Amino acid sequence: MTTQDILFWIDIQNELEKLIPADMAGEITRKLIEREDKKQGDIESLKWLNDDLNDELQEYKDMIDKIRRIV
């Protein structure tokens, strides 16, 4: 998490504290951060999967090229 991210979440919590008690605002902010972290983790996992699939696809393309050269 970057400094900018931390400042963003502090701003969110401060705004929530204007509306609800601080402990509730803290809990809500924590849950929002966890949800965002999970979402980012899911995005990273999808990027890794995409990279793996692209590598596999390239291997198949290379094999096809070799077969074409033979035939």
Question: Can you give a write-up of this model?
Answer:
There is one protein chain. The protein is mainly alpha-helical and 71 residues long. Helix 1 packs antiparallel against helix 2. The termini are far apart. 0% of the residues are buried. The model has no long low-confidence stretch (mean pLDDT 91).
Average pLDDT reading: 91
Number of strands: 0
**Counting H and I runs of at least 4 residues, what is the number of helices?**
2
Low-confidence regions: none
For the report, how would you describe the main beta sheet? none
**3D shape:** rod-shaped
Distance between the termini: 54 Å
Secondary structural class? mainly alpha
- Approximate strand percentage: under 5%
Helix content: over 70%
Backbone CA Rg? 23 Å
Order of helices and strands: HH
